[in-house]
Request: fold
Amino acid sequence: MIIPRIALTSGEPAGIGPDLCIQLAQHKQNCEIVIFADPEMLTRRAEYLGLDIAIKIFDPDRPAQQHPEKTLLIQPITLSTAAVPGQLNKANSSYVLKMIEQATLGCLHNHFDAMVTAPVQKSIINDAGIAFSGHTEYIAQLTGGHPVMMLATAGLRVALVTTHLPLSQVSQAITADTLNQVIKILDRDLRHYFNLDNPHILICGLNPHAGENGHLGREEIEIIEPVIHALRAQHLNLHGPLPADTLFTPNNLEQADAVLAMYHDQGLPVLKFKGFGQAVNITLGLPIIRTSVDHGTALDLAGTGNASTSSLEYALEIAQLMSENNHRNRHA
Reply:
């Protein structure tokens, strides 16, 4: 039996990421989890939480194995300054980026089967003078590829053509080349990582009522419809463009494997309403497997023991599923 080895970055040290790692370790897992974090910080946070943990340093030369409960397997990274739960400190921004970088490179070099990321605070990294638009974009800079963000919960997957853009910039970002690339990546990775033979993808229009035949915008007529038509000719199972306000209904979603939304707040509010705290953020289009939680740093909950591990557990579950399918399909 192959035991997946998963790299888990502990996220913003003032947030709930360290708490989640410690809470997760209270129970046995079906994979080996290597946590990228400052060991002393985790020891102090466990004291805040009143939880017992043992810390072991990761040995990359040892075969992957399930480690005992109440044990953290750590790839140590030293904080710049002590972390206080709930209190952001821009001095630790470089620590956060170092965690992400080391875990990403570890996946690229096949030391890990996948990486899972706890939440980071984008604002404090930018306050430190470091240009940072998000986990997804930063990891893509390190790995190459074209990142496609997809969130998933039970019964619904939603991918995005554009991610963290102001609404005023969305229309100009939706080009035929970009849309063509995103749809091909979504179709390919649904096949490879989720074992879907012929994924059925519903595609949102950009404008209200999918443009109302050009009366409410022409992006559907001039960009979206021609791309869909061309890809259907290549045997991709696509349906759209559909009005987003009626696409997310049970009848439409019943036979769909994924929905492709044009921008962040077109598709994600529906998914998070359906499954917030029980959802996972998946980055497709990269040469590595990366999943993440569906929530933020929750500074007000840090150190309290009230943070839920449900999204992190789901992110780990999906990372393992993708790893197993990746191994199977690469060796088929």
